[in-house]
Specification:
disordered N terminus, 28 helices, 1048 residues, Barwin-like endoglucanases
Length: 1048
């Protein structure tokens, strides 16, 4: 849709179908949304302070979702229209120092926090004219782009009851409705079966014994001969993209505990999941005989750090997130406090501020890490005192908050490291104690002992009763010393002197140094080991919990109600709650060997015991029907066709009703995957809905942003059992639950007289938990009369379907309402930034054991190759699932990145940011490669790979797209590498024509500009239609594809 110079939309551009908000009166005149944007300009000709947006009653604080960081924001509203977005000054996510939480909202009105470009452009996300208002049912074949509007009630009835629901299209297949999938409804039977499946996993119960015990209910199972596959309920799959706290719990309540399916799968393996999983394992403690806990995203203390090595992450453009990181990094650079080194094949914006740029070859991050490990150990530049501490008491004696497994002895079995030696094996203690070696003696080490300090020697190789033993650090040393620094320089493409220089600088600042990394190292098949090598560098200098060192994200307040002093323990407020059990469709969290499907190696498909939410494995598993067929899929804010590497290869599954008999989408638009759905239910955006947010990984103080409605929902209003609700994912789930009489929804959902009939019935309870704090005396005050009145006035523009104060109050106890209003009036709950430190250490501590060696990984096998994983950092070349090396298959190695004003899909219609700042992306190559290939700026090229030798994408509807883009020649990229930024090159999401009720809705070609590179990414030759993947943390590979460029 074209815009005039003044930013006002011309009438001829409007979408005419009322199925879209562009066809409604909301956007149809200049008096609508864009005619009001001008009010956001603060200046007046008279100079009088009449700026309407400075009135407190025109402001609602909420939480962004233009990226995952979820900054707290201030929404400014004029005559019911959102006209400006700024940062929330109450939150340290948006302003440092942040305003005192006790400051009244009236006094905070004129103070704005910061927000990034795409955050400000969120207005164009919510008012996207291609947003859906009504339910659509396909009126042609899947993917044909032909739809009809049907009533919400009809759509719910059809997906619940199934049958020949596409008979009018000549399709006579009988579609299984949800009522015939959710067949296990008895909570006691589900719980008993779930308990016994655990016994089968432990080999303590046979299948025959299970069948005998549960003979009256075997008909609810997918396969009685494999009861660990679970009930037929598991044949319902919910796959979701970007989703945050609160909505996670709402949807899991529906999927896991009402529908009784284990298949709630998020898209995190498409993001930096391996980083999170590696950090979590590396920070786990050993308690009660098992490894547990862990912190998924430790980060440097940017406000005090003196040296940082930034590997494969772009602090000023993406990561978690630019708004929080840019200020302390810039302050450190300007003041001279901070020195940076950046390891990245591309000269990023943060590399432009660095002391050294290390343009390493993609996928050689572990080689760089191990090279530094070697130099540090050779030159005794490690923190020996820290590393020798083997338990809590020893750490405490040295003033440390954490300790490591560096001195723990590992058994060498059949020539390879296995499990840690236990104290009971040497007659010194129990099976829950480890063993260290000190001055020629074995000593039992209980890592959690706070009374008896234990220290161990670090570089030990010894024997006990013919069992070879080595310490964790010795194993790491041996791996690092397998290659010389010159060899590492050759592998990485980094100069020897630069490796040494960075290692020397890294160890020259005591504990005020750290290694920061994210997506770059992890999106390779060797990503887990890359992470381990980089994590080890932090531990070698003993930087956890120190000012300027490695820190724990402070998180936020408990919203689930598990802690004392909470009014609502949500885990207990679910009468009739089903216990979902069985192997997930992606086989995550399960060991192949413990399942009844185990039949030697290779397995039919990979298993992921150390991961979850392995999104790229979902659709190939559905295609193979392994471990079982799926009968119904509900997609929400996830588009595997666009976001998954080689996602187009899953198209055959999407198009095949035999593979996916019922495909439902809850989407705000017709997206790149929802275009293939049978039904699309409109969802609402982050500016119209609830969640409880989260504290960003970079924040050192607690912050819980509340996402709450700031404008009337733009979807149609429907009625469910007398309740009027805007169409949304929550509304759909409530309707299905009531139709099927599922537990946890309806009149007594939380207990007698406690209904769940509106989203607020659920979400306001979470807000109350936040308001009551995490300990005694941590409760917020009640809102006074002025604040209560402000709360009402600020929501005067919301429809009764969204804001009904009487209904909202009924969701809570009378004593809770004032406290909830107090929190909502500030957009959440936020701790002051001055609470970040206690002396020279962090307030919120990583603490506990820091692990160089992950024993549970070391004793596990890859389900395809049958090979054991390694427990410590290694340099592993890029390989497929059978362990075959991926050789150079093209001229250039492909990497991707993200611009600060771009998100995967939802910014494609943000004309102020993505379209206005950079309307297309480019194929970026070095000057050296451009001259070698005879290319120049602006040349159009087709990108090809082994997995897609023609560089073409079939859309399954008679249309094809070539993977083509314009060349951009630059000095700031390593020769031999080609880079393409993500988030461009859409073929749906308002970019192409669709037909609704016989009316052609024209797409906006601006949204299609640029190149989308995922269709040519490398697939695994052993796994049909599946990208190369990292097998431990579960990430999809994005950076292991060799490509050729063909000028067109």
């Amino acid at each position: 849709m074209e815009s005039t110079p003044k930013g006002q939309l011309t009438r001829r551009d409007f979408i005419k179908s009322t199925a879209f908000i562009g066809g409604t009166s909301i956007l149809a005149t200049q008096a609508g949304v864009f005619g009001k944007i001008g009010i956001a300009h603060a200046e007046t000709e008279s100079g009088n302070e009449t700026y309407a947006l400075a009135n407190e009653e025109n402001i609602i604080y909420t939480c962004c979702l233009q990226c995952t960081v979820a900054c707290s924001i201030k929404a400014k509203i004029y005559e019911g229209t959102l006209v400006k977005i700024d940062g929330n000054p109450y939150s340290a996510t948006s302003m440092i120092p942040n305003l005192p939480y006790s400051l009244s909202p009236q006094d905070a009105t004129r103070i704005d926090g910061k927000v990034c470009p795409k955050g400000q452009a969120g207005i164009q996300h919510v008012y996207d004219p291609y947003r859906l208002r009504k339910v659509l049912k396909r009126s042609g074949a899947r993917g044909a782009g032909e739809w009809k509007v049907i009533p919400f009630e009809q759509a719910v009835d059809e997906i619940v009851n199934g049958g020949q629901i596409f008979k009018e299209l000549g399709e006579d297949q009988e579609v299984t409705g949800l009522k015939d999938i959710a067949v296990l409804k008895d909570a006691k039977v589900a719980k008993d079966m779930a308990t016994d499946v655990v016994e089968i996993r432990k080999k303590k119960m046979t299948v025959a014994q299970f069948q005998e015990k549960h003979q009256e209910n075997l008909d609810v199972l997918i396969d009685p001969d494999h009861p660990d596959l679970g009930p037929k309920n598991n044949q319902f799959l919910f796959q979701v993209g970007r989703i945050h706290n609160g909505r996670i719990e709402f949807t899991k309540r529906f999927v896991n505990n009402a529908m009784g399916s284990v298949n709630w799968i998020e898209k995190t393996s498409i993001c930096g999941q391996t980083s999170n999983k590696a950090w979590t394992r590396s920070t786990m403690d050993f308690k009660e005989g098992k490894w547990a806990g862990g912190v998924k995203a430790p980060r440097p203390d940017w406000a005090n750090i003196e040296f940082a090595l930034v590997v494969g992450t772009i602090s000023f453009e993406a990561n978690y997130g630019p708004v929080q990181m840019t200020e302390p990094i810039t302050d450190g650079l300007v003041s001279g406090r901070l020195k940076l080194a950046v390891a990245d094949p591309r000269f990023t914006k943060v590399a432009g501020k660095a002391w050294k740029w290390l343009p390493l070859k993609p996928g050689t991050d572990a080689a760089l890490g191990l090279a530094m490990v070697r130099w540090i150990l050779e030159n005794n530049r490690y923190d020996q005192k820290y590393l020798e501490n083997a338990n809590s008491a020893a750490a405490k004696a040295d003033g440390e908050t954490s300790w490591s497994d560096a001195s723990y002895l590992v058994k060498i079995v059949d020539g390879r490291p296995g499990k840690f030696l236990r104290a009971d094996e040497v007659g010194l203690g129990t099976k829950d104690q480890f063993v260290v070696y000190r001055s020629g003696n074995f000593i039992a080490a209980d890592p959690n002992d706070t009374v008896n300090p234990v220290e161990g020697d670090l570089l030990v190789e010894t024997v006990y009763q013919e069992i070879p033993l080595k310490t964790s650090l010795q194993l790491l040393r041996e791996e690092a010393f397998k290659r010389s620094l010159e060899e590492y320089a050759e592998i990485t493409g980094i100069k020897y002197e630069d490796i040494v220089g960075v290692a020397r600088e890294f160890t020259a600042h005591g504990k005020k140094a750290a290694v920061e990394f994210y997506r770059g190292p992890v999106k390779h098949t060797n990503g887990w080991y890359n992470c381990q090598a980089l994590i080890a560098l932090n531990y070698l200098i003993g930087n956890p919990d120190w000012k300027g060192g490695l820190t724990k994200p402070a998180g936020g307040w408990d919203f689930k109600g598990a802690k004392p002093n909470k009014p609502y323990d949500m885990s207990k407020l679910h009468p009739g709650k089903l216990s979902a059990f069985g192997v997930p469709i992606t086989r995550e969290t399960w060991q192949y060997e413990e399942s009844t499907l185990f039949a030697g190696y290779p397995a039919k498909r990979p298993w992921y015991p150390f991961s979850g939410n392995v999104a790229q494995e979902t659709w190939p598993s559905i295609a193979d029907g392994y471990p079982y067929p799926i009968k119904a899929v509900l997609l929400s804010s996830h588009t595997p066709m666009y976001s998954v590497p080689g996602g187009a290869h899953q198209l055959r599954t999407l198009l095949d009703p035999a593979k996916v008999p019922l495909l439902i989408a809850a989407d705000i638009v017709i997206g790149e995957t929802s275009m293939y759905a049978d039904y699309i239910f409109p969802d609402i955006t982050y500016l119209e809905r609830w969640t409880t947010g989260q504290g960003p990984n970079q924040l050192r103080v607690k912050a819980t942003s509340i996402r709450q409605p700031v404008i009337p929902a733009l979807t149609d209003t429907v009625e469910i059992e007398g309740e009027k609700l805007p169409l949304s994912l929550e509304t759909l789930m409530i309707a299905i639950a009531r139709k099927l009489n599922l537990p946890g929804f309806g009149d007594d959902a939380f207990g007698a007289g406690l209904p769940l009939k509106r989203p607020e019935d659920f979400y306001l309870k979470l807000v109350a938990n936040i308001a009551y704090g995490d300990k005694e005396g941590d409760t917020v005050p009640d809102a006074d009369d002025k604040e209560l009145e402000l709360f009402r006035k600020a929501r005067r523009h919301l429809s009764p379907a969204v804001y009904d104060e009487q209904a909202w109050q009924k969701a809570l106890k009378p004593t809770e309402w004032g406290k909830v209003v107090y929190v909502l009036n500030r957009g959440g709950r936020f701790e002051s930034i001055d609470k970040a430190y206690v002396g020279s250490q962090q307030r919120y501590l990583l603490g506990g054991l820091k692990r160089f060696y992950i024993e549970e990984v070391a004793v596990s096998r890859h389900a395809i190759s049958g090979k054991y994983f390694e427990g410590h950092a290694v340099y592993q070349e890029i390989q497929d699932s059978m362990g075959k090396k991926i050789e150079a298959e093209g001229d250039l190695k492909l990497i991707t990145h993200k611009e600060v004003f771009v998100t995967q899909s939802r910014t494609s219609g943000n004309y102020w940011s993505q379209v206005g700042l950079q309307s297309q992306n480019f194929v970026q190559i070095s000057r050296h490669d451009a001259e070698r290939l005879g290319l120049k700026n602006g040349d159009k090229v087709r990108v090809k790979s082994k997995s897609n030798p023609e560089g073409v994408q079939d859309l399954g509807n008679g249309q094809q797209r070539y993977v083509e883009g314009d060349i951009k020649v630059m000095e700031g990229i390593r020769p031999g590498v080609v880079a393409v930024s993500t988030g461009y090159g859409h073929w749906a999401y308002g970019s192409s024509d669709v037909v609704v009720d016989g009316m052609v809705i024209k797409g906006d070609p601006r949204r299609a500009k640029g190149i989308h590179i995922n269709p040519i990414l490398r697939l695994d030759d052993n796994l049909r239609g599946t990208p190369l993947s990292e097998p431990i943390g579960g990430s999809a590979s994005f950076y292991d594809t060799w490509v050729n460029l063909q000028k067109v």
